[in-house]
């Protein structure tokens, strides 16, 4: 019998962790953190905080329901922090258990491990290719299926069991025109559907949008339409987006090149994510540079401020995060931002009251300085309702356990499933953090 | 001295009418209707209703403030009904005064005149080309400037006076990638800015969106991304959009061709708008057909229902309008719509309680029949806040009279203008229906 | 074993019907209609429509899951149409099965039966007192517990089984200060809690409000504060509220008396509900009169319009229902409503797109006539989240099946229950129309 | 000629300041602060910050438009910080100019002056009675008219000029049933209306609510209905409300007495406001005590936590303000708040993203500790649309300058005025911070 442990991420968007058990053996999928739970406590520094405390705060998964199970593998769907951010805290609970993921994901996870100040993580970590099927025990094998999302090398994780496949979607969208050329592996998904999917564990964050999520190519077009505008005579141009959104950053670099400006990426996390991406050939930095150290940042921003028309600044801070580059600019630090500057938000506002407040503070300060702002040149990285329907038709799973969402999102997923012939309680299971669903 | 008569459309989105007076001579811009004011009265048939009654209902402009002025020209910015729909009722108030507009606009206006059952309109109507400057009196000349919107041959109307130009934007967006190839005439706008714009009369409907409105190319991409989806195995495909949105219809026809399906446009207004567009070379109907008469509609829908996989139906009724094709389908008429069909809404919901209710009824009925729906594959045809800012910088007008919006929209426009250095009451004037603004 | 058939009202607010089975014997609770499902079809006249058709439209419960069970009693919690409105259509499915309810409820149900034009209802109907325990089979007894709501003589229905009580709340609020003196029977509820409640079936309509619902005394104060205002010099005064809301009507009559005006209730349904209420001593009509026939209505409104300062009109039509008195007034019929009149809405807007549209039409028309409107002098009749929590603590039920709400409301109820120590799937069951929950 | 200087509070809710000039002499009305502008800067301590800096931050009014005018009097409408909070910073700009207000207001203003650490305020401050007419120059006299709001001794300020009265409403509601017995002075308002009001300067914060604001008696009833609930068996009871809302605090003390619990008010600002109120006989503290010093707070909360059923705690922190008592409790300080406690919010959430975030953090933390929360047992202190209409009819002013609101609120007020026969730009003036309106 297959058991799905809905460890975490079933009551929130954040700190994802799921475990699949067959015949006493367990594969873990994701170990994420929940940053808003850290944010509400002013004195919490994740790197220095013990696991138990972070669990009590709701910042990382409480994995007590599986701690004594026989775990044979840990897998990561992709490299966002709500999927890998707790690795340094939780992997030590499963000593020697190997960790698998795509190369970009594993490299990011290793970075997390390195910056941890409390624990040492000794688990072996393996970079796995799409398509490779890794036997992790006599009965169980895992596989990473290529899918599109807002970070490179995202994957659906398949756990092959003698009773059929368990497919965890990770975070995904069906992007058929991604400017970087990544495409969902429809062929393999269709095959899996034919072979028989026992359980589907889909993310649910945008299930309420009654449409198909636009391609990343739309974001590219929105950005080009603004920046390459006939007669656009802006002086200082500052774009801000997610540091891990390599496709978006690539588009901005291309645009800077077309405008005859130099793209300058400023901020530690931008340097981190693009650095690894460059190493793997996932981004071309031609015509761009990334600066990281405080001194270099100060120096480059001084240069830029004296010749604004020659640069396209790309900075961290789209949510007004404390300490991020744009946040500091708005405070009057680093660069005399003002009337001559336009800030382009290539990101939405994360719908959490804390983010809204930070973003409000940021925008208020920028407005008081006379900065022009342009918002929402962005598309989501998550599947909408009609994408989910399509996945259901591709995979035709026997059972569904919606994941990665609060109760409302999970139940909306269940509603969609009912439209497709499933029934809640019979073959769609809305579960909660810390519980387990038995699949008969 | 220039006077701007804000006749109508200054307290609502609908029934636009403005008049520009210089030295006792008047140019009228637009004569629209307001359909929601007709909708709330069940027994009103516009074609058969007298002008006074329709004015009392708030369905067409009350033009009493300019009836006794010396009108030398009537101009139309574009062919939407909220800009030309009252021509048959109001043009007779200004006998013999010539009417000007682009060819597509004038042909549509002639259609309105023809279907009127109460009045006879004898005003001469002239098809005017972009760029042509038409002297309409000793002091006044008019000019149509090419601009992009959701109907072909939209224009900004310029009234040239000895004191400078008065520019009425009509409805517009800055679309730099329109799939049909139409582009805003930035060059002429920039020239006008240099020559000196005395008054700008801009539309205000989407002033609250803090972004740049996406290009029509984005709508095309959204549609292609859905329809040309790998593995899309839909049976019946039904798209619905605005009948006058020729670019959108063209995209749908292209898509049908790529899918190897025949596009069939069903409904009287679709036939009307595409008919005139075809005649002017504005749409290529290759691979498509439009059916209009009740018999033809019934026949073609019977055919389609027997071979759904061979057609892409394009129908009226995206707002659930009574009598429209999709509305009737939802009622079980014309075509046995059901589980095998997907309805694609390539249109937003017009934010009026009556439209919301009609749309709700439509969707509820479709859902009860098991129809799959996909929404919002659409972009707006109206400029957002940052487009408006760009226009202000292009034209650098001395005075501004925001139009085409309710009080909230007009005052939001005034806020934008204040950010750009104007001051309400000094050079930005928020006016009301029936009043007049004197420009010093 | 107890089975709860969640026949209807588990996917909507409307057409409630639940059945409790023990040992093969069934008690039905409520048989309601869903008016918005009737409204979306223009040609449906409930009285003349057959049951099957109405079920297909989703207008009345589909009772097929219990049609062949052995039904021993039908009970009504209270007299609102979403609880009794389908009696004439569905009671014939259970011939000779007796129907029970409080006197006001039964008299209203008899009215429904009488106006039916398609079926004849022969079931015996019994007026039952609060507290009386009626043995309806060897194993089962029913009981009506006094509770407060927005119609007189509302009750919770208890089905006593050998395994413990099943409590269906009907619609309720905990009103400790109702101006008519009705109070919840806390004593009996506490006793039931001690005796042991096997299953609680609570309504869920306002579960999302994180507060305690205000007493009807608050509505009375809002009305008095407006009408008895120092210096209130209104001319025509027109109040509109729910025709079955006897407490509210009584307050308005008292207020009219205090103002030295005559209260005149105009409209058929007002006459119906107050007529029965008066007969049972539930309302004092002193100083008021109700007019019903078209002629009387016309006559009295003519009188009132000639001496507006002497009357307080109380009319139907607060949701802009077609044919209601206020709706007709807004159309210019019956009474020349205008600048001298103030309309007081002592009712909220029912949050359904159709109602919103009707209400919008009503308000637009009234506004165009210069009528002053004052809204929201009203409190809800439904329990909020903290009232529900209190009920849970009073009854301490073993199992919960949330009712009377859409999926979102039912799941929100489940969330509350989880806060109180229950667990979804274990002892809280979110069910759907037509399904059944087995209680172990 | 009368000039109205709309110094501040005309683009926000906060930092109110208006000046009325006649014949070169000026009366100032209010000098408030805007706390959210302080909050967005982490390092700002108002008491220690110079005036210019605070003006630059937008935290206090920029009074440069009137600094060189001949000011003859400074008046305060009431004691809220957005009306008196800048006294210590701005009064020194007008040396020796006397300050007037009701006794409670002046005592609070003196407290502000005392805690200032940067400036010394030497202006004489006079406690003025309602009805008293104070001649402040040969031409000008001022008068305070009794009105109701959410703090004691609120007033409308009248500036009597040879051209008629200028009435500034301050913040107000028409409360005809205030439990403390305060009533609006309708008689005087009606007289003023008859004598002739040249200009009305009304607050606009709740102009968009289409109703009459409920009386404070409704809040009392909501609280009683919750606390005096039959069977309410709560253990720890903690209420939180505005520290200056003396009526609300009195109600809570009365309720505690009825419950046989001791009311304990904890927190510095609660002690401050109730201390002055007690001194003026505005509150009866019988059965209650207020603790202020950190030691006393710690001691009393330790006592309470050992005998929760004996106390009703009344604490600061309803908006989650950092450092407030409830905020600290939620952090696990001062009192082991948890499952046995119920927190009653007798206050709304202030609709500003920063407040929302603080409140969200507070509620999240309380929820994680298992605390029961009940919200919205509260009514507003501000007039709604229909109250404003009534005031217009009472005073019948010649001109209107809406105050105390953002642009949207001011324009909504203008819309109401237009319904009552005024016209924007003619006799209703929507102004902005720092501008001046000339009254002809």
UniProtKB/TrEMBL annotation, chains A, B, C, D:
Q: What is its EC number?
A: 3.1.-.-
- Sequence positions that bind Zn(2+) 1: 78, 80, 149, 171
Under the GO molecular function aspect, what terms does this record hold?
A: 5'-3' RNA exonuclease activity; RNA binding; zinc ion binding
The keyword Membrane appears for this protein: no
Domain Metallo-beta-lactamase, first and last residues per copy: 14-221
Cofactor stoichiometry and binding remark: Binds 2 Zn(2+) ions per subunit. It is not clear if Zn(2+) or Mg(2+) is physiologically important.
Protein's cellular compartments: Cytoplasm
- SMART domains under this entry? Lactamase_B
Q: Where does the source fall among the domains of life?
A: Archaea
Gene Ontology CC entries for this record: cytoplasm
Instruction: State the family named in the UniProt similarity comment for this chain.
Output: Belongs to the metallo-beta-lactamase superfamily. RNA-metabolizing metallo-beta-lactamase-like family. Archaeal RNase J subfamily.
Q: How does it assemble?
A: Homodimer.
Q: Which HAMAP family match?
A: RNase_J_arch
Protein name, as recorded: Ribonuclease J
Organism, scientific name: Thermococcus barossii
Designated gene of the protein: rnj
